[in-house]
Amino acid sequence: MKYIFQVRIKEGYTAEDYAEAWVKASETIQRAPGARGTELHRKIGDDKTLIAIASWDSKAQRDAMENQHNPDVAEIIRGAAPFCEITALGEFEDPEWVVLPPGKTT
Length: 106
Hints:
Layout: E1 2-9, H1 15-29, E2 35-43, E3 46-56, H2 59-67, H3 71-80, E4 84-92
Antiparallel strand pairs: 1-3, 1-4, 2-3
């Protein structure tokens, strides 16, 4: 499954600042069972809007990670919170199939 959220960077902070915090939190979160990776993308033409996509084997595994308080991750999120506005866009099923150009893999 995919967990997708949007990040709006506030004035005085940069996408690079947020990305640094995001990488630190992701390194810990991605050790959880079922974590399959994360991606952070900048919106074209708007360097203050990002989208984050976290991939998981299942919603249950993501929920289990969320329900286990990790003080290191909480501290990273608290540190970045005043500088950004995060909006959850939702949880999405992985597609049943994906068509890729020859030679490409997911």
